[in-house]
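Subject: Sanity check before I submit

Could someone independently write out the structure tokens for this chain? I want to compare against mine line by line before I put it in a report. The sequence has 718 residues.
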Amino acid sequence: MEHMISPGNLTGSGLAGRIFQTQMDPTDDIVIALVGNPNTGKSTVFNSLTGLKQHTGNWPGKTVTTAFGRFVHSGKNFFLVDLPGSYSLLANSPEEEVARDFICFGDPRAAVIITDATCLERNLNLVLQVLEMTRQAVVCVNLMDEAKRNHIDIRLEKLSRILGVPVVGTSASNGQGLAELKDAIDDLVSGRFIPKPIRIRYDAAIEAAVSMIEPYIKKATGNQINSRWLALRILEGDDSFIVALHEYAGVDLLDAEEVRYKVEQAREKLQQQQIYRDDLRDRIVSTIVGMAEEISREVLRYDGDWRKRIDRKIDDVLTSRLFGIPAMLLLLGVALWISIAGANYPSQILADAFFWLENQLTHLFTLAGAPNWLLGMLVEGVYRTLAWVVSVMLPPMAIFFPLFTLLEDLGYLPRVAFNLDYFFKKAHAHGKQALTMCMGLGCNAAGVTACRIIDSPRERLIGIITNNYIPCNGRFPVLITLSTVFIAGGAGGMRPVLAAVMVLGLITLSVVITLVVSRILSCTVLKGLPSSFSLELPPYRIPQIGRVLIRSILDRTLFVLARAVMVAAPAGLVIWLMANVSVYGNTLLNHCAGFIDPFARVIGLDGYILLAFLLGLPANEIVIPVVIMSYMSGGALLDLDSMDALHQVLKGHGWTWLTALCTMLFSLNHFPCGTTLLTIRKETGSWKWTLISFIVPTVTGILICFIVAQGARIFGLV
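---
Independent answer below. Compare away.
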């Protein structure tokens, strides 16, 4: 069990001691930083080393999650800090700042750099940057099993000689090489291995400029930080690092007169060589990339050109202008069709089981002599609402989430972001917003949290405000159910196909609305131009079916279902009370629905439907159960044993295809659920932006439903 520790308790404390604290005696803890590119298996290495002895927390002042945990090796306690995945330490994002600052100021005893054996050349860029900052490093070449399958041979010993630090090959998913990795870390921190990191040679002009200021920087900082690396950051004008240096180390280099004077002299020398501040970083990066290419040529033997060609041919289709978007829609449509068609039978089984159990509970209450009001509240209110939520939600979720996770594990989701990047740029939004939208398909709260990957604060706010337009899992039951019983009701065997096409069309519409609203926001309250970013297209990988099932069922399906059940139970009780408590000869439910009914009719709904959305603020999952319960006679949710029975109930209360369509459109475009609103408040730190996130989609939904409803009535379509 972990809690906070005071500064100085960790070995080599510094910044680490200000962030992480533990109940255990930490005086012998050896702090190790874990750094690497995204998609290198860094989290798998971390989980394999630390097991269950881990925890997560936000970096102080930033909404960037950092994980940390412990492992014991050779009688020593190691405190492992899993830094956010970073492509570079030149600090282009909050995640990169966190990784850079911890290595500089957290004073770790060693940095373990995780690389991907299947794309080592690209990962070596980060390796070389870390080795410029610290001598104490171990390079972990992970995914060696995948490299072997792709006929990639890596000469690890030669790579170690070139880099001057320990290099270990691992396959963390099956535990291979982890013992050797622990030994290498222990050898490094114990002094049995003396590192001699490779030195990056820049242009002669840059080297001369660094030599001019390095001695003065070393003197001003007391040699606490690699002075050569620091000189490069000062020359290129890395303002974020200068601020961090002052905040964490209490050093303001530019306040030292001789340092400032030498920096100005060095920049003048560079300008004489036609090297300006804007060009300096490009030259630095080019040198590092060139060295990474040179090293990879020496240590890599690649016989898998066939695999590369296959990946490229697949991408030629999936990311092409002509086929990219249709392929994306086709894959999503197939996933929806499988979810809808496959959910019917298990839904029926669950419904039969739950309502059989309800009969037994009713019989038990009757035998016990329980009063009717108690039977009504607990069985007809709470239990029947829970039965509806579980029987309707669980089957499609249990199918859709594994399929979605399968595409994610396969490496397809970054291709979705690539395909949509052009459209987001036109909307003056950030291309990474496409990835946050994909997260929103599971849960909008998760989608809002995922907006942390967007570097620009302006574009991050746009992503947060518009994420709710993407239907989360809680709204899929509404879309799937109404599409099945109304839109595709008379299609017979084609019903699942037409329902899937309808839901796919609604999701496509939600993306279009997201782009339109993003453009409006970027031209009004959040003005600005879109920023650029690097998007990695990872190699296609064979999904690990076991891990996909565990992640999708445990981490997503059951998590969302548990949240729905927790909300549905008290909601069922409240709704039963509203439906059974009468005031002035009418129930509270009828009073409330009647009050808002005139407005609801204008936008194609009725008072009960709009009230269901309001009561569904805690969780979207209960909207349909609330509607059904509102239409009951006697104040209980009706026993619906099929989609056809549901169709008859809704039709009997005045529903038409227009009512179903407007209900689905309003489900797409209305206020976020309570969990998402609280997440928005946490991420933005502002009730103002939380209120805007509530108002913007709600106003959008009202306008769209008004236009559709009035248009259908004017043209006599209903």
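---
OP: Matches mine. For the report I'm noting this point. The chain has three domains: 14-190, 204-274, 324-345+389-714.
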